[in-house]
Amino acid sequence: xxxxxxxxxxxxxxxxxxxxxxxxxxxxxxxxxxxxxxxxxxxxxxxxxxxxxxxxxxxxxxxxxxxxxxxxxxxxxxxxxxxxxxxxxxxxxxxxxxxxxxxxxxxxxxxxxxxxxxxxxxxxxxxxxxxxxxxxxxxxxxxxxxxxxxxxxxxxxxxxxxxxxxxxxxxxxxxxxxxxxxxxxxxxxxxxxxxxxx
Length: 198
Known about the structure:
198 residues, mainly alpha, globular
């Protein structure tokens, strides 16, 4: 399993390097693509923490961090894109996630994930029906939607009953999710240039 996390880290690290390079070429794209930048940044942070974690408690805590951060980091930029500055959006996210973590509720997490899936699908459809330049961006949103979908499935199945959450099936589902997550990261690599460079 340690090998998986090393491979994951290397893929995410190279993805971050490429993203930073494209942002240096064209800094204005941060305003258009903040939800994707946020997602890649969180995945990078968690991949570092995954390499350093020592026990099951720390693994559960990493999952909790992901569940608290990902929905608002996707939703706020999509809802507020162009209405307020990037700095203001990030401040709102910090305030929201701090309160969200304090009042952590599984059902609320599921609702936020479902809204995030809806918004991502909506944005992917909107981009795919636009210009050829926008069409190049839609695959990234489809990939992101797949990852969020498998995450919300994990959240739902984990809390559906104590029997399921402690069963061998959740372990197999978790392994399948990790493989899909890794494939999604590889697909991010395939589409990242077309996404950031128009």
